């Protein structure tokens, strides 16, 4: 009996250990169901004519230290409602070249090299007109990064490409973004158009471009890649532009084709099918989520009850009833931000209104930022 009990105990403990190991494996950091990186655009509200509206981008990097990234965010709808804030500028692109045939200054052939790859023999400078996006890194994960660049590829600020590196060569070493969750990566600044209240569709979709490696990538301290080759069969068609014909015989005989032009669709004279590959984002490792911006109806700061009169006794009674008796909030709530501190309808706003009405104090907050 004692040996039987011991055997049963051994079997039970073995089963228990197996279950524990299985549960541990299911919750391992290497579990494919847990993305290594999640980036998402925060949902934002703004008022007509608002400037410097922050569009926040957030990131989770639970397992990896991020030392560089590239993101492309664009308006998916409503281009007339908002645009990213941009300034015109000039970008100078300097490339470095090394002679491989001949000698400077009479090179007959050369190759492009990195500027630190000595020797290089001459340079080539190009200048480009660019739109530079405005952003704010105060209190974000990018605070202290040594390189951040934003560029719009459109002519009117409808998109922004953001590229950042934590550390550049020389100076103190920046370690990047250590594993964390829920951090604000960057705040992009946008301007909202002075749209009329009659506009019914006031929703703007902000989309993270997911298809191009050049504008979507994350660099980790472990040099992990989040793009993988996906094979596909590539069909190429060709049209002959120069047939070789023997006209010495009757009827003339076609001997072959001397020159081809590639085409993407029929009709074609010949085709070839080759196995090719394309880099695709590993969506099990990287999750990306789009965001929105909603433009609220227009309002006047201080018109708490919506009668189109700013800062009178009726508004004062409305605010007292809201604070002390649980009355209805202003519509929209931002109309009760009388001192522009972005806190709507509190004691400070009440003091502001009392001081304005009974003591001739300064006017209530005005403008789209109230």
Descriptive overview:
The structure is a single chain. By secondary structure, the chain is mostly beta strands. It folds into 3 domains: 37-85 and 134-226 and 286-294, Immunoglobulin-like, CATH 2.60.40; 228-278, no CATH class; 299-359, Type 1 dockerin domain. 14% of the residues lie in helices and 43% in strands. The chain is built from 3 helices and 19 strands. The strands form 3 sheets. Strands 2, 4, 6, 7, 8, 10, 11, 13, 14 and 19 form a 10-stranded mixed sheet that branches. Strands 1, 3, 5, 9, 12 and 18 form a 6-stranded mixed sheet that branches. Strand 10 and strand 11 (159-165) form a beta hairpin. Helix 2 packs antiparallel against helix 3 (347-359). The protein is elongated, with a radius of gyration of 32 Å. The protein starts with a helix and ends in an 11-residue tail after the last helix. 22% of the residues are buried.
Descriptive tags:
single chain; 370 residues; 10-stranded mixed beta sheet; mainly beta; 14% helix; 3 helices
User: Percent of residues in helical segments?
Assistant: 10-25%
Distance, first to last CA:
82 Å
CATH topology of the largest domain: Immunoglobulin-like
Number of helices: 3
Number of E-state strands: 19
Show unreliable segments.
Answer: 1-6, 9-13, 19-29
> Averaged pLDDT, please?
85
Task: Tell me which CATH architecture of the largest domain applies here.
Answer: Sandwich
Task: Give me the secondary-structure category.
Answer: mainly beta
Highest-level CATH class of the largest domain: Mainly Beta
Order of helices and strands: HEEEEEEEEEEEEEEEEEEEHH
**Rg of Cα set:** 32 Å
What summary fits the major beta sheet?
10 strands, mixed
Strand portion: 35-45%
Q: Which geometry do the CA atoms define?
A: elongated
How many domains would you count in the coordinates? 3
């Amino acid at each position: 009996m004692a040996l039987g009990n011991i055997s049963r105990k051994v079997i039970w403990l073995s089963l228990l250990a197996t279950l524990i190991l299985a549960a541990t494996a299911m919750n391992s950091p290497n579990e494919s169901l847990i993305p290594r990186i999640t980036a998402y655009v925060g949902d934002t509200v703004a008022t007509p004519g608002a400037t410097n509206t922050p569009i926040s981008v957030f990131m989770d990097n639970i397992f990896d230290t991020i030392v560089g990234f590239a993101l492309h965010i664009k308006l998916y709808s409503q281009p007339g409602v908002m645009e990213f804030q941009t300034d015109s500028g000039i970008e100078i692109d300097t490339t470095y070249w090394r002679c491989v045939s001949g000698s400077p200054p009479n090179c007959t052939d050369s190759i492009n090299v990195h500027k630190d790859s000595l020797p290089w023999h001459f340079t080539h400078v190009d200048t480009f007109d660019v739109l530079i996006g405005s952003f704010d890194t105060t209190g974000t994960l990018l605070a202290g990064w040594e390189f951040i660049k934003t560029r719009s590829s459109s002519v009117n600020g409808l998109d922004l490409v953001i590229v950042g590196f934590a550390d550049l060569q020389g100076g103190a070493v920046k370690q990047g973004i250590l594993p964390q969750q829920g951090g604000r990566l960057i705040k992009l600044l946008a301007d909202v158009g002075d749209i009329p209240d009659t506009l019914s569709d006031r929703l703007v979709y902000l989309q993270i471009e997911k298809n191009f490696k050049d504008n979507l990538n994350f660099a980790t301290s472990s040099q992990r890649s989040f793009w993988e080759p996906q094979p596909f069969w590539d069909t190429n068609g060709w049209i002959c532009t120069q047939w070789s014909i023997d006209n010495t015989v009757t009827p003339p005989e076609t001997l072959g084709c001397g020159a081809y032009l590639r085409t993407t669709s029929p009709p074609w004279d010949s085709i070839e099918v080759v196995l090719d590959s394309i880099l695709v984002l590993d969506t099990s490792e990287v999750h990306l989520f789009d965001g929105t911006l909603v433009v609220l109806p227009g309002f006047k700061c201080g018109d708490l009850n919506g009668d189109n009169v700013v800062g009178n006794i009726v508004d004062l009674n409305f605010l007292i009833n809201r604070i002390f008796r649980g009355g209805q909030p202003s519509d929209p709530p931002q109309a009760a931000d009388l001192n522009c501190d972005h806190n709507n309808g509190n004691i400070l706003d009440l003091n502001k209104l009392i001081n304005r009405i009974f003591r001739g104090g300064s006017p209530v907050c005005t403008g789209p930022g109230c």
